[in-house]
TrEMBL record:
SUPFAM superfamilies documented for this protein: FabD/lysophospholipase-like
Region Disordered, annotated ranges: 1-21
Annotated Pfam families: Patatin
Superkingdom of the source species: Bacteria
UniProt protein name: Patatin-like phospholipase family protein
The keyword Hydrolase is assigned to this record: yes
Source lineage: Bacteria, Bacillati, Bacillota, Clostridia, Candidatus Scatosoma
GO molecular function, one term: hydrolase activity
Length: 300
């Protein structure tokens, strides 16, 4: 009897072992079959008024049913990216931008380090972004500024979003630098026109960069001293951006540039034109971006 009992126990143990092995095998098979989710990131570059194209691009993505998993921005790209990550719709952003006037942003009082103070700009940002902090955003977001003391890129990922965006959009010499402890912060576009690297650090494995400035050209005729300075800075920025683009080539799946012609980054008159150009850009590349998320091949 004892022998029979042991035999039955052994049979039961063997069956239990088979069940456990089968369950483990099924789990392994299921894990192998499950497709790995692609994390899509949009890097929105600087560009002043031309940056309104970012709003059109995001609207085109929404219309195509494409949502980014994370965002980065620089200067105007930070303004748009931060607003979108906080929950503003592209339509709401366009309406807000079209209502803006120069005096809504610039304080005509002369300040050391810049022609204008940042108080009015901060007020406008606070109106739309409120007191939201990075950890409260609906979409993970980071933005870049430049510290003039260390001459390096500073990436914001915590604290007040409005304060970080203001630093990222603080155009040198136009606005007074933002003093943040031992740092003197200015527009991130000085060193990082399109913040791609930061998306990689956030875990994005499919990255779309939107550069609204493109390759800026110079006029054939002699310009005023101020215009000449702007053109010289544009030439320097072109070469820096080319170098950055090559460095980030292995991270970037798509580098997109809307056709904005000769639109100035300082105008307040052609916002709708910039929006429409960004929307067309999004429409033209929607399927390509969808393919990236669904396992399409990486573009050069």
């Amino acid at each position: 009897m004892a022998k029979t009992k042991r035999t039955k126990n052994a049979e039961n143990e063997a069956k239990e072992e088979e069940v456990v092995k089968t369950e483990k095998s099924e789990k392994i098979v299921k894990t192998e079959k499950a497709p790995k989710k692609k994390k899509l990131g949009f890097a929105l570059g600087c560009g002043g008024s031309r940056g309104v194209a970012h709003i059109g691009f995001l609207q085109a993505m929404e219309d195509a049913g494409i949502k980014p998993d994370c965002l980065t921005g620089c200067s105007m790209g930070a303004v748009v990216g931060g607003a979108y990550a906080s929950g503003m719709t592209p339509k709401e952003m366009l309406e807000a931008v079209c209502k803006l006037k120069p005096l809504d942003l610039v304080d005509i009082t002369m300040r050391p380090g810049g022609l204008f103070d940042t108080r009015k700009m901060r007020k406008v940002l606070g109106k739309y972004l409120g007191d939201v902090t990075f950890d409260q955003l609906k979409i993970p977001f980071r933005c870049a500024a430049v510290d003039m003391i260390t001459q390096s890129v500073v990436t914001f990922s915590e604290g007040s979003v409005a304060d970080a965006v203001m630093a990222s959009a603080c155009i040198p010499a136009v606005f007074k630098p933002v003093d943040d402890g031992e740092r003197r912060l200015v527009d991130g576009g000085v060193l990082e026109r399109v913040p791609v690297r930061q998306l990689k650090e956030m875990g994005a494995n499919k990255i779309v960069a939107v550069d609204v400035l493109g390759r800026r050209s110079s006029g054939r005729k002699s310009a005023s001293a101020f215009r000449m300075l702007i053109e010289v800075l544009g030439v320097m920025d072109n070469h820096l951006t080319d170098r950055r683009r090559k460095e980030n080539r292995r991270f970037t799946d798509l580098w997109l540039e809307p056709d904005l012609g000769d639109m100035s980054e300082y105008t307040f008159r052609r916002f709708q034109e910039a929006y429409d150009s960004g929307y067309r850009l999004g429409e033209e590349h929607a399927e390509e971006i969808r393919a990236l998320v669904c396992g399409g091949k990486k573009e050069g």
